[in-house]
Amino acid sequence: MELGFKILVLFTLVQRLAELVISKRNEEYITSIGGKVLPENNYIFMVILHTSWLITLLYSAFQMQLSFSPVIFGVFLLFFIIGQFFRISAITTLGKRWSTRVMILPKVPVIKSGIFKIVRHPNYIGVILEIAALPLIAGLWKQAIFFSLCNAIILFFRIRFEEKMLSNHNDYQQQFFKGSLS
C-alpha cells in the first residue's frame, strides 16, 4: 500500500503538470479566437493551495513513516478514482475550452453536453474529492481537513466569479437555470 500511495502521488503530480501545459495551450487557442482570460483575484491562492498540497503529499509519501489500513486505503482510493472520473470527464468534454483559468468566449453557448448534463461543476467536484481522498488514503486526516477547508473557501469565490462571468458574456443562466427565479 505504501508503494501504491507513492505511485498515486507521483501520478497526480505528473497529471497536474501535464494539465498546466494543456491549459496554457487552450488559453492561447481561446484568446486567438476572441476569448478572454479574466483577471481573478484568488487564482494565486488556488495555485498556492494545489502546489502546497502536492508538496505535502510528496513529503508525506517519501519522508514520513506512514501506516496504512487496507479498508481506509480502498475506500479513499475509490473516492480518488471517482474524482478522477469527474475531472477527466470535464476536461475532455470542454476540450479546447478547458483551462485552469476562468476564460470566456463572448456570445458562444456554454457547453451542456457530456458530464455537464449531470452536474454544473464536474471539475470542481473531482478536485474536492481528490484533495480530500489522496491524503486520506494514507490516513493523513489533518492534511485532508486543512486542504479541503482551504479549497472550499477558494471554490466558494471562484464558482461565484465564474458563473457571474459566464452569465454576463454567455448563455449560462438560460442553460443551467431554466425555470428558476435567478
Quaternary arrangement of the chains shown?
Answer: single chain
CATH class: Mainly Alpha
Mean pLDDT over the residues: 92
Structural class, from helix and strand content? mainly alpha
CATH fold call: Four Helix Bundle (Hemerythrin (Met), subunit A)
Annotated CATH architecture: Up-down Bundle
Number of strands: 2
Spatial strand order of the main sheet: 1-2
Global shape: elongated
Cα distance spanning the termini: 48 Å
What percentage of residues falls in helices of 4 or more residues?
A: 55-70%
Unreliable segments of 5+ consecutive residues: none
| Strand proportion | under 5%
Radius of gyration: 17 Å
**What is the H/E string?**
HEHHEHHH
Largest sheet: 2 strands, antiparallel
Count of alpha and pi helical runs: 6
What does this structure look like?
This protein has 182 residues and is mostly helical. The chain has one domain: Four Helix Bundle (Hemerythrin (Met), subunit A) (Up-down Bundle). The protein has six helices and two strands, in the order αβααβααα. A two-stranded antiparallel sheet has the order 1-2. α3 runs antiparallel to α4 and α4 runs antiparallel to α5. The model has no long low-confidence stretch (mean pLDDT 92).
